Amino acid sequence: MDRVEPTPAIITLTTDFGLQDAYVGSMKGVILSIHPHVRIVDITHELPAHRILPAAYLLREACPRFPPGTVHVAVVDPGVGGQRTPLLLKIDDRFYVGPDNGMFGLLMADLPLQGAWRLERREHFLHPVSNTFHGRDVFAPVAAHLAAGTPPDAFGPAAADPSSLSLPAHHEETGTLRGQVVWIDRFGNCITNLTDKVVSRWARGASFTVHTASKKIAGISTSYESTPEGEALSLVNSMGYLEVACNQARADRALGLREGDPVVLERVPTGDGRS
Amino acid sequence: MDRVEPTPAIITLTTDFGLQDAYVGSMKGVILSIHPHVRIVDITHELPAHRILPAAYLLREACPRFPPGTVHVAVVDPGVGGQRTPLLLKIDDRFYVGPDNGMFGLLMADLPLQGAWRLERREHFLHPVSNTFHGRDVFAPVAAHLAAGTPPDAFGPAAADPSSLSLPAHHEETGTLRGQVVWIDRFGNCITNLTDKVVSRWARGASFTVHTASKKIAGISTSYESTPEGEALSLVNSMGYLEVACNQARADRALGLREGDPVVLERVPTGDGRS
Amino acid sequence: MDRVEPTPAIITLTTDFGLQDAYVGSMKGVILSIHPHVRIVDITHELPAHRILPAAYLLREACPRFPPGTVHVAVVDPGVGGQRTPLLLKIDDRFYVGPDNGMFGLLMADLPLQGAWRLERREHFLHPVSNTFHGRDVFAPVAAHLAAGTPPDAFGPAAADPSSLSLPAHHEETGTLRGQVVWIDRFGNCITNLTDKVVSRWARGASFTVHTASKKIAGISTSYESTPEGEALSLVNSMGYLEVACNQARADRALGLREGDPVVLERVPTGDGRS
User: Fold this and answer.
1) Tell me, what's the ipTM?
2) Domains and CATH numbers, chain B
3) A2: pLDDT strictly greater than 80
């Protein structure tokens, strides 16, 4: 347990490249050719194509859990070869390499940004640099050199203003808290933009119901098993967001929910409440 | 070849989490933050959601092939946050970490169970422990601590009676052996609950035919190429089970087979047989 | 950066096994049991079942990017258990292990073949050797022993004539260059058999249009963003092939393109050209 070896270099990969093509394999080859000792860890290559918000949401949740010093490469890059800047960020002692399109926005909203650099020093790129695959030609080699010890400011000048990103806003009205579905996960659980904190502050200990267009759910459960199999419930999920789910079934299908659909909390009038 | 380094610590991951969400990445981050030197090996994250039998079948086949000492984390966990016990098992010198729901039942049926512990010592968990994601909060950190050298009995008291699991039973009648499809693989091969051993004991060297609802197949072939492209055949697969397949085509579609459908072997009457 | 440790042994895996079954996990277990220190890198397990050309195309692009000495295991093996030869190749200082069915043909067309051996020495296999899963029983153990230092010629005699493979031929006529779609990637980009080199030599600096059955595209763009969102364009992709794509949309669906469909370049008559 009292190990003396230094922490090994780790590079994680998060992309929308899928796995039917050579894209991911090429990136891994480029990385290992520069830094054969680095550990490559796949986070996912199955992000929805071209979409920034799901990528930002996943990165926010997974990446800070890795050890300090980890280099996270994230490539959802519809603007590749165009005007967007290739970026290196240092956020809370981890490094992030990818296009400047908001993907790192949810991380920056919550955690200290300790540095931002534009990737301009082409000697750290793979040549010739294509216009369609910076994952292989820019981000992979930069990550490998960084993990091998090249200091962040060797890759280019400071970046002034990395793109930010927010979840859609929620709305508080008299007796109601209006949110929406922002992400539907693998199990059909419908995750909203309402955090535990926002819900608690609004509810102030009072009872409430959770409404989707087709369903009224009484309050918040503590686990999926709280309702019979197939029944709808709401709970605060493992990321701290209010989620509408069904026990062992897909809530999106059972309740007809899609991304963007409203989820509204209503206070139960005192006297006929349920806590 | 005569290496002096100790065998490196290995943790494998097998889940139904898919790869479109942050679940798998979060588990990897938690593991590497506790034990940065461990090798994480993905077995799969594409198990069918909430289903225990396919998970048990896969674990039975893949996990014993890893080196002794490997820590296998397996999470198909519809009962997360409910009554089911989080478990650590030692089976044939490998460790298994996951919910007590039968996933490890096929392993225990065939291989020596050398220890079972309830995961109760919360100092080895990630805090706060959520009610919806024990993969991240319980199983990943326990696996990391175990791989780093914490002894199994430090995680909790002995577990009396881990859940068992069996494949559906087959039935022998005069001249027939009745089995069923228990799993359809990626290629559409229909794997039955009939092992090589059961079939041999029943057939006693005599010829037989293999019947599905729509097809009669003569005896057992030795490879997919034994029939013309697209044609049905049966063979003993690499896991020792009788399988109904088609050469370079999907047997499930070609023969209309689904999980649970009967596959019946009939002895060929002496005299008009074919061996 | 000036590391003294030797380059670690790397084995990559490329298969059409998918991830819902135990096949990939079993191969990893077999490899690590023989050589616990090797790094296993997944290239992909999502190749289309039984198809050689997409596998060959991916291997050609990804594998040469790994460090010299890497052992690449590739298994798309519809002929498993039949007549095809299990093979070990050395191509441009990397090793390739898999069935002799053309999968390595595009690599051999472009890079120096330095050795070829038939895998016949059964003491390096996993026993009993099945007839349906040589990935586990032949290719995985051979790769592990090779990565651990067993010399290539210990696995069997020289192989005379490994299977070759070519992309479909293109056709030059007066003023036209006829190619076809050979692969559609994850994003719906339609990759043709026309390389940058072939196109340049044919065009000799003159302007041309790119025709699919439903669409005429003016010349070659430099990035996806060159057209408005959803619009079709053609470009030379990161692998050096002409590709028909749409900015942030699926060209295969938008233009009704499938593998094998013609893509024809036509020279623009001088005088009304656009360069």
Assistant:
1) 0.92
2) 10-154 (3.40.50.10790), 171-267 (2.40.30.90)
3) no
